[in-house]
């Protein structure tokens, strides 16, 4: 069987099953975005990697090397944020074509360092290699978290509300305006969504507040798309989820661009992915309090977009007209091998 | 300027210079094979990455996926060994073509896990991605070391002897028999050097003994070739070195294959690289004691191959006929961008 038939998540599951059971100091191992590793009683080490492949994840004509550096760093910082943690140290592995200009590498590192610096992390090493064709960049980010602040995918409970920070669908709208520069839309809207796609801002302080407030049950970042990522929570927590389309936080810029390009903006918010917002669950009693804490301490608003239900009910999307769409078990959001979004 | 003109080590220096000074908890940062990071007063975290690119570092026709997994793990374990440390946790990032068979991935992980398992490490995460053409594998290995056992490149002193474990040139001989299967050589010799090239055995216990014996001044592993790696010690320690070609430990298999293929076996030992032996310096008074400790506790012999001299004397190779060759400052061993060995 080819790996594209098995898909990214099927392949991860296959690898996990074949490997020996990890020792107890591995709090979270293969299958999550971030490994959680006990280095002392008072501190866990967090470790995450993200590979960006030219022509698969980015195009050198659409993103500047500085933006690319920021983006790669932001994706990793977002993963650490989604554990309630703090970024610490980064290793950058680059496979680069030999004819690449040194200025490209300078700007790439400048972007990585700037985004990592904001997050409190430093680049401490990595590896450089030649590649004949498309470049590959793998950033490995280490972080730390106090055990009592760690948030996992697996803590969601039936009856929890599902909340998300900021806005969904902007990144997908940004991709649309980059692909179709001829679209007739406002300059401000174009600029907003382009930035959200090219240089997303990870919700680091928000993740840390969610981790330390003691009110959140489960947390992930929105990288694969709202439906893909809530599915991660559902699987790990053995629950189902109901997503309320009428409640999705969608910016007027995303609405404008979806309209101009003939797309359904709700689809972008549900499966667009790469928004790097935080998606979490909490009891209905604490949700307003969490909204208050986040708003007051970070200036970021979060919206209730659904609720956790019994596992048997699966993943359901409730449209504004009252229709419910039930997603089958096979649905998993963005798949890096299939290369197709739902 | 293109990065191939600057070269791997020039590019690393350029990146290091552009980045801000790291905080004091970064004991060793960019420029070494391994980052050394203070996580507590009694423990340092070690972090290293190695990228293997298809058709640059390996060919799927010459190495099995199981061997490839072992090899990638061994390269990283060797880096941790060269700090006197112990491997702990690994993250594997793979960019794979979608048509790859799942059995390839199974065997690759089996190889990685087996080599890492011997070294006491477990795979805890990573990242999977699609790539359209040649696969890229980046293994990031974390390790630990007690501060008093840490060995760096920078501790060599004038008058030290230079020692190396095991044998030099076998890996290059292995590459020769893989490239030229028609060579008329003994089955035993072919098998020995092929294994040394495809599945090198990292000198982990040896590195740990060297770290804890308190007698070693500087340590690296032989990945870029003896001359390239002693140059790393010279630069970091601000010393020069004299290499005695007549003392190089060369196996009879490597001699046989060099003879059959019309090569100079000393060149293979000096610049062949990828032997993953340990290269270290110690005072003449402790060298015999270290040889005794290593031999007794690990069964591995080490040979004196030269001595540390004044920085002004540079890097000198003393041939058996009495001739001295002095290498210029520009020489740096294997360069991953220039892609040429000396």
Sequence-ordered SSE layout with sheet pairings:
The structure is a homodimer of 342-residue chains.
Chain A: H1 3-18, E1 26-28, E2 35-40, E3 43-53, H2 65-81, E4 86-96, H3 102-118, E5 122-130, E6 136-145, E7 161-165, H4 170-179, H5 187-198, H6 204-212, E8 216-221, H7 226-237, E9 240-244, H8 252-261, H9 265-271, E10 278-282, H10 284-298, E11 302-309, E12 315-318, E13 324-327
Parallel strand pairs in A: 4-5, 9-12
Antiparallel strand pairs in A: 1-2, 2-3, 3-6, 4-6, 7-10, 7-11, 8-10, 9-11, 12-13
Helix pairs in contact in A: 2-3, 2-6, 4-5, 4-8, 5-8, 6-10
Any overview of this molecule?
- 2 copies of one chain form a homodimer.
- Chain A is of the alpha+beta class and 342 residues long.
- Chain A folds into 2 domains: 118 residues, 2-Layer Sandwich (60s Ribosomal Protein L30, Chain: A); 175 residues, PurM-like C-terminal domain (Phosphoribosyl-aminoimidazole Synthetase, Chain A, domain 2, Alpha-Beta Complex).
- Helices cover 37% and strands 25% of the residues of chain A.
- Chain A contains 10 helices and 13 strands.
- Chain A has a 7-stranded mixed sheet, sandwiched between helices. In chain A, strands 1-2-3-6-4-5 form a 6-stranded mixed sheet, covered by helices on one side.
- In chain A, strand 4, helix 3 and strand 5 form a beta-alpha-beta unit.
- In chain A, helix 4 packs across helix 8.
- The first copy, chain A, starts with a helix and ends in a 15-residue tail after the last strand.
- The mean pLDDT of chain A is 94.
- The interface between A and B is large, with 74 and 74 residues.
